[in-house]
Amino acid sequence: MEYFIGALIGLILGAVAGFFVDRLIKGTAYQTREEILKQAERDAETIRKQQEITNKEELITRREALDKDMDRVRAELRDQEKRLDRRETLLEDQQQDITKKERLLESTQRKLADRTESVEAREKEVEKALRQQQDELFRISGLSQESATQVLLDRLNNQLRNETGAIILKHEQNLKQTCDKMAREVIGMSVQRYAASHTSETTVSSVDIPTDEMKGRIIGREGRNIRAFEKATGVDVIVDDTPGVVIVSAFDNVRREVAKLSLVKLIQDGRIHPTRIEEIVGETQKEMEAHILHLGKEAAQEAGVLGLHEKLIDLMGRLNFRVSYSQNVLRHSIEVSFLTGLLAEQLGLDGNLARRCGFLHDIGKAADHEMEGGHPAVGAEFLKRYGERPEVVHAALGHHDDIRVDYIYTVLVASADAISAARPGARRETLEKYVRRLEELESLACGFPGVEQAYAVQAGREIRIIVDSNQVNDREAARMCRDIAKAIEESLTYPGEIKVTVLRESRNVEYAK
Length: 513
Description:
Blueprint: H1 2-141, H2 145-193, E1 204-208, H3 213-219, H4 224-233, E2 236-238, E3 245-249, H5 253-269, H6 274-303, H7 310-318, E4 323-324, E5 327-328, H8 329-346, H9 351-360, H10 375-385, H11 390-398, H12 408-422, H13 431-446, E6 451-457, E7 462-467, H14 474-491, E8 499-503
Parallel strand pairs: 7-8
Antiparallel strand pairs: 1-3, 2-3, 4-5, 6-7
Helix pairs in contact: 2-8, 2-14, 4-6, 5-6, 6-7, 6-8, 8-9, 8-12, 9-11, 9-12, 10-11, 11-12
């Protein structure tokens, strides 16, 4: 019980103590809150006052900046005003100068008008005086106006003729030096870079036989074998007393080659009779067609010309059995192809196209005996038919200067063709053609007025002309030299070039008595 009472008293005392402690704490809290609020009000007031001060300072700073901008703008406006004043003053001065110049111009125009009237009056007086002088001159000379004009024109014509001859002589010398140097460099370089061998061919082929007894078998009973052979091949077989040889002759080299190969096969086979001859000749002709195509392909590959039509390749192969002045036309075409390509490359042109033009320029010779027209026209027709380029067609058509040249490649092909034909040993011509060419050359030169004598020298590659010194002066001789060279180019056909030399001399002879 005592414990219970003691515990109760303790509880009561604890409750009382807790009450007082709580009141004490609450009182302290109320006092702290009021102090915090007052402090916050004081801080807010301080911040507000600082903000007002800051705003006033910023306002003052902005006002100062605005004042500075205003001052700068006012200064610029003052400068612009000064510049405008100066410009206005300058414009006024210019206006005054223009006014002065206008007045001066008006005065000058008046003076010019007065002077023009004076000059016109003087011109009329001069014209009147000239007419009077002309009438007086006509009266004194006894010539009419037309006669005097003709005399003056004749004198002017003679003077111009002399001056023209001098100018031609001067420019020809300069052009000759320059052109000869460049042409020698280009052509010499091209010829030096390509050198080809030449062989002369004839229209006969010889076939070796083992014994002379074989001649009788070739001829056959009453000549039936040789007649059948000649009929099948289209050639002439010559069996004479020459030991160990039978001659096959024909102008068509393809036929001659077929006949030669067929005869060799017959001699090797030993069975020579008309039926066997026809069989062998037929087989050989088929082999020859294949051989011709093979030759054309090899030649095109050697020349570096690709993409040719098969018909064109066949025609090029046939040129291997065609000769021109004893020069093999296929080898000639290959050489012209190389030379044309080299010339084009020296001049900065398309070398492949140039080689193609040179390779195909004489293709018409393979079929000119089958079609009408010369080989340039025939070749151009074939090339155009099988889709070759215009430059190639034109080169075949115009490489002999028969038409107007439209492409530079035609000139190059003509030059290469002349180089190939003019090589030593490349071509041969008959004595009759040689003599006739020299006679034509001399007769053409003798047809010019003032020419006394003309001599073709150096196998027709130069002609020397002697003129009458009383009829032709030095300047006219220079003009005549060029005219004769041009006439030779237009009238004659010749390989290479012909040098024209005009000789003029004055001889004074006196006798002492």
